[in-house]
Amino acid sequence: MTLFLAATATAERPLPWGWLIGALLLAAAGYVASCAWWPFTHCSRCEGRGKRSRSDGKVWRVCRSCKGAGKRLRVGRRIWNRFASVRDASQ
């Protein structure tokens, strides 16, 4: 007896767009909440020390990027502040 493989039309499962959009919205809401709660992050140039050294390590100078604070405003918080200033200027 010969077995014939029948070509079954198996439909591919569609992408779960609802789950994907929900996960993206949840991630965006989490980032907005973290920007509201923690508006500052460590400076990427000086790693939060507020000063930078020369390559030989003998001379230390104040970081020009964060002006010696060691922290910088997060990108999401800058966007938040821009929208807030535009909203306040329109009233």
Secondary-structure element order, N to C: HEEEEH
Chain oligomer state: single chain
Q: Hey, roughly how much beta strand do the residues contain?
A: 5-15%
Arithmetic mean of pLDDT:
84
Largest sheet, described in full?
Answer: 2 strands, antiparallel
Strand order of the largest sheet: 1-4
Keywords:
alpha+beta, 91 residues, 13% strand, 2 helices, flat, 41% helix
Structure, explained:
- By secondary structure, the protein is an alpha+beta fold.
- The chain has a domain at 41-91.
- It is 41% helix and 13% strand.
- The protein is built from two helices and four strands; from the N terminus they run αββββα.
- The chain has helices at residues 17-37, 75-90, and strands at 40-42, 51-53, 60-62, 71-73.
- The protein has a two-stranded antiparallel sheet with strand order 1-4.
- The radius of gyration is 26 Å and the shape is flat.
- The N and C termini lie far apart (84 Å).
